[in-house]
Write a structure and sequence with these properties.
mainly beta, five-stranded mixed sheet, globular
Length: about 70
């Protein structure tokens, strides 16, 4: 199936979860927020959040500074 992460299209196996997508793209789960199709997904829910063809994931990285 095809999904997008921050507007870049990726191919993932069927029955993948949000956590699988992060792992397959080597995206560290630390210090990021994730949204699936516009809905924020908490860290604890990522392993149980299924993906479907055409889903859009947005990843926002936290940073410090001022």
């Amino acid at each position: 199936m095809k999904i997008s992460i921050n507007d870049v299209i990726f191919e993932l196996p069927e029955n993948s979860t949000l956590q699988n997508a992060l792992e397959l793209r080597n995206i560290s789960p630390q210090g990021i927020a994730t949204a699936l199709n516009g809905t924020v997904i908490p860290v604890a829910a990522r392993p149980a959040t299924p993906l479907a063809d055409g889903d859009r994931i947005v990843i926002i990285k936290a940073f410090y500074g001022g």
